[in-house]
Structures are given as C-alpha cells and as structure tokens.
Design goal:
With about 300 residues, the protein is an alpha/beta fold. It has 11 helices and 13 strands. The strands form 3 sheets. The chain has a 6-stranded mixed beta sheet with strand order 5-6-7-3-8-9, sandwiched between helices. Strands 11-12-10-13 form a 4-stranded antiparallel beta sheet, with helices on one face.
Length: about 300
C-alpha cells in the first residue's frame, strides 16, 4: 500500500555476519517502536528503511517510494541517528540550515524552515551557539530539529529519548504524538520500555536479526499461546479466592502475593478467567482490582526471548 512501509522478505548480511534475515513487515502510519537488545537488528532495519544501506535480498518500499530513488526519497524520510556527527565548528542553526540547502531551496526558505524546526524542539536560545558546547540532551534535540526541518512523511529516530531531562522528554513525546496524528510514520527505537508502552501504537520485537513478533502489545501477547498469562488480583480474602480458582482447569498456578493483599494467578485462557472473575465478583468475595501483570512490552519481550518472568 502507498501509505505503508513494506519489507518484502528482506535480508541484510555484512559479509558472513547477519544483520537482519527474512523480514516481512507492513508498517502502518502512527508510532512504531523497535525493541530489542544491542545486536538484535534494530539499527540495520532503520538504515534499510532510510536508504542508507541496501538489502542483500528482498525489497523495501516506503509510502510507495523506493530507497533506490534518493532524490525524491530523502524529501520524504527524516532520520535521526543514535550517534553524533557534526561539521566542526557548526552552530545548531548552521547544522539545520545547511541540511535544508542540500535540497536546493532558497536561502530565505531554508532560514524560515530551520528556525521553525529549532523552535519546535525548544532550542531557540542555544541555536547560535556551537554544537560542541551542547549537552547530550541538546545534541539530541538539534538532531531531531534537522530531521523535522524538511517536513518529512516518515521520521526514523534511533534512541531519540537518550539524555533528555524529564520535562524535555515529556515535551518530546508530545511532539511525537502530534507528528503521528497527521497520518505520518514515526519509527523509533528505545530501551526505555515503559515509555515504549506509553508512546507506541505498535511494536516490533527483534532478536538476533529476526522479527520475533509485531503488532499492538495486547495482540502480540495473544500470540504467545504456550505461556500462561499472569494476572494480579487484589482482594480481602486471598486464600478463599485461591481455593475457588483451583477448581478450574484453565488456572495453572495461584500464589498469594508477597504483601498478603492479593493473588498472582497464571491462566491459559484470559477470556475464560475474566468471565470467571465476573461470576466471583458477583458473589460474596470482595475483589478490589484485577489487572494483567504482563500486558506490557518488557514482559512480552522477555517471554519471546526467554528472559526471566516479570515481577510487579
């Protein structure tokens, strides 16, 4: 589709070293987070979708365009790398302005666009200072300003929240949401997994060069058929409730919570479990809350790659 990012059986090898292998994705507009440890293939995937490297096998289209058509492609895609690379002696303004001039636009238009992007990331006061004197967070923001300055339809950001203080981080997340709500793509990688949950419309989970799951968190969680779902129940009579739960075959484990104020339950069928809880709640056991423990990207990723189970 012309409004999606399509990976059609894409593999990338660096000699005999695997970058990504057999990636088949259709990424819709909105915010998509790439999640995985170092070496999982996230940066390779980003470099492929921005045209910085070409696939060994397969093909990529970004909103109907091929990375092999760079003159038009780079007007559509903005990229903010994880790594710093600035011309020596440049100010923040010069960094953004010179990038825009590469598109062949006039001085006046490049000047207006550069200042608009700098204002958008809140760096007006520092714009005429040399980047060499910027803090980590300021360098992150000036890179983001450059990526935004050409008004791209696709924004690809590698670890964009690193080094940002809490206030700027919240403002940047709001900026991401504003960008995506206009029907555009925002692809980001992050190790701050609770923020991935807050930010993302969907996630792509990667390990060892492969896409191990993709979709919304809840949808991905439902793919894990062989791993029971964990649910935390807060109640006044945990022992009594536990005896009721053990009567049902879809409940595989029940533990009293460490603080004594509830149960941690594992079930093979979330749907049947929630129906059961409705029945019990209508009886004479006082249930305060029922909440999934592992309905977040950190836990889902842990299950898929075999790390320890989450605690909460």
């Amino acid at each position: 589709m012309d409004n999606e990012i399509i990976f059609d059986n894409v593999s990338k090898f660096y000699g005999e070293v695997l970058g990504v292998n057999r990636v088949a994705l259709s990424i819709p507009p909105g915010i998509t987070s790439l999640v995985g440890p170092n070496g999982s293939g996230k940066t390779t995937l980003m470099n492929l979708m921005t045209g910085l490297i070409q696939p060994t096998r397969g093909s990529i289209t970004v909103r109907g365009m091929s990375p092999k058509d760079p003159e038009n492609f780079f007007r559509t895609v903005g990229y903010c790398s994880q790594f710093d690379s600035y011309p020596k002696g440049f100010t923040g303004y010069q960094f953004v302005y010179s990038f825009l001039r590469l598109f062949g636009i006039t001085h006046a238009e490049a000047n207006d666009k550069a200042w608009a992007a700098i204002q958008r990331v809140g760096l007006e006061e520092a714009a005429k200072r040399k980047i060499a004197g910027y803090s980590k967070g300021m360098r992150q923001r000036i890179k983001l300003a450059q990526a935004l300055s050409s008004d791209p339809q696709v924004l690809v950001l590698d670890e964009p929240l690193n080094g940002l203080d809490p206030l700027v981080r919240a403002e940047t997340i709001a900026l991401f949401r504003e960008f995506a709500t206009a029907g555009r793509h925002l692809i980001l990688s992050s190790h701050v997994l609770h923020e991935v949950d807050i930010i993302s419309d969907q996630v792509i989970l990667m390990a060892a060069g492969y896409v191990v799951a993709e979709g919304q968190i809840r949808a991905v969680r439902e793919e894990i058929e062989d791993h029971p779902m964990q649910i935390l129940i807060r109640c006044q009579q945990p022992q009594r409730l536990a005896s009721r739960l053990f009567e049902h075959d879809h409940v595989v484990e029940v533990k009293v919570h460490s603080d004594g104020g509830g149960l941690l339950v594992k079930t093979k069928s979330a749907d049947r479990f929630y129906l059961l809880m409705n029945e019990i709640a209508a009886g004479n056991i006082d249930i305060e809350t029922v909440a999934p423990v592992d309905d977040d990207v950190n836990s889902v990723y842990g299950y898929l790659i075999g790390s320890e189970e989450p605690t909460r």
